[in-house]
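quick one if you have a minute, typing this from the bus. theres a chain ive been looking at and ive put its sequence and its fold in C-alpha cell form underneath. please have a look and point out which stretches look like helix strand or loop to you. anything you notice is useful, everything is just below.

***
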Amino acid sequence: MSVTIYHNPGCGTSRNTLAMIRQSGVEPIVIEYLKTPPSRSRIVELVAAAGMSLRDALRKKDTPYEALGLADPAKTDDELLDAIEAHPILLNRPFVETSIGTRLCRPSEVVLDILENPDIGPFAKEDGEVIIDAEGKRVV
C-alpha cells in the first residue's frame, strides 16, 4: 500500500499520525509540506479528495490567518490559495493519502480509517492519551 503524508515534524498531531502509519507496517512517502509546499492544483486535489472545502482546510492557530483577514467569507478560493502559497503554514496538517482515501488527520487517529492495516496494536499519543488499548481496541 502506498501512503503519502503531508507532514510537519514540529506538529504533535502530525508526528502521532506518522507513528500510526509506521506502526501499521508501512513506510510512507513523507512530504514536509513547509519545505516542499504542494502546488495550488495539488492542494485543490487533496482538499476535494478529503471531502472538504478549502476554507475548512485552513489552519487558524499560530498562522497569519487573522492578520490576512481570511475569516472574511467573501474571500474566494483563489484568494485563499494565494494566501496558502505565500504562507504554507495556513494549510492544515497532516493530510494523508492512501488507496482507501484521503483525510485531514485531525485528530491523528482518523488515519486508521484509511489504512489497509488499521489493527496496529496498542498505541498511545505522545501526550500519553491511549488510542488503542492493550487488547487492540480503539479507545476513542
